[in-house]
Prior knowledge:
Blueprint lengths: L3 E6 L5 H11 L3 E6 L8 H7 L5 H10 L11 E3 L1 H13 L6 H22 L4 E4 L5 H9 L5 E3 L5 H14 L13 H13 L2 E4 L2 H9 L7 E3 L22 E6 L8 H11 L4 E6 L7 H4 L6 E3 L7 H6 L3 E4 L8 H8 L4 E4 L12 E4 L4 H13 L1 H16 L3 H16 L1 E2 L3 E2 L2 E2 L2 E2 L1
Parallel strand pairs: 1-2, 1-4, 2-3, 5-6, 6-7, 8-9, 8-11, 9-10, 11-12, 12-13
Antiparallel strand pairs: 14-17, 15-16
Helix pairs in contact: 1-16, 4-5, 5-6, 10-14, 13-15
Amino acid sequence: xxxxxxxxxxxxxxxxxxxxxxxxQAGWQPRLWTGYHxxxxxxxxxxxxxxxxxxxxxxxRELRRRGSDAVPLQAVVRLPWLELPTxxxxxxxxxxxxxxxxxxxxxxxxxxxVAREVRRHPPALVMPVDxxxxxxxxxxxxxxxxxxxxxxxGHVAVGQRILMEEAALHPDWADSMPLALPPRLVERARREAxxxxxxxxxxxxxxxxxxxxxxxxxxxxxxPYGVRTDRFAPGPRRSRETGPFRILYxxxxxxxxGLAYLLEAVRRLGRSxxxxxxxxxxxxxxxxxxxxxxxxxxxxxxxxxxxxEIYRSAxxxxxxxxxxGSAQAIMEALASGLPAxxxxxxxxxxxxxxxxxxxxxxxxxxxAHRIEGLYRDRSRREAFSEAARRRAxxxxxxxxxxxxxxxxxxxxxxxxxxxxxxxxxWTRR
Length: 429
């Protein structure tokens, strides 16, 4: 009989759908608790479809972004009354400084509701997401249920230090990064990682941040995310005669992603036949972008299903993140056959000199040097491109499921123990 796995996440994360499918493929019976999941027949969706004029398709397009056929509706518990007002409030707030407190409140309410479900109907294993997990983890321990924390990004205690440094270095980008998080939220996130019976990390970078805040290495499972290699695939490459050499970045337009360094590298190269395309929503007022006008082109956030063609239109993918988990955009770029230049903090599966290059964070010269090298060396780009596709095929969601199955089996065999000064003392059945 399949074991019951409760997966929870209050917000939006495309990767959840792949994790859900991997659990089902591994023989589990996953349930997803989330803030919102698209339902064509739902009241919210029917009301959105009847909105006046051009608003209806706009709303429906936005709602469809948060859903997947891989997750059957009967396996989803959604709390739109909590999530949708939060999203609306965040988009109307003039200052990013309010974001951590608002999300903290949403996460605490969501966490309490999932914890109540765990107490009422204990599953075989709970898998809450970082920043919305502490009450669930404690309820699971009380019910004798093991917990596997889904740490989707490097720990906030480490990330906050990096971002505070970055705000001092680039004050014009400061409003694109959540700064000065309330100490109680940082401590809550630390307790989650310490008290969980095991922690799932998508990259070595996330693992390093967890160890730095006191999580014992033997309690951390590192498993890189998968990618839809059927959706994202190489296409015909444009010849240099049909357009400029296109560098692509996909993600939030924020200095957490290290974009000031990429923009400066492109400006220093000073080539009219190199185009930098930034795809994603601008966080904050965008003041940091103004001094680079003419050195990049921007496309607003696109639904996930529309990205494949954008990847295929590029020659090179660059992701210079300062603090990450494991950016799905990098995996999609590799699957699309794009050579990639990334930082170690981006948490990717890119290998130096195989699928692309790994550069230090905040290093404009290294970025410019590697970009120019690949701009000039077509044969190397083509070799990296072929290797990138092979690397993505090694990390599709089917391979993820194969790695996820023993991880779930191991995690569900953990007997929760009391919380000690150095974390959970646990034994295996």
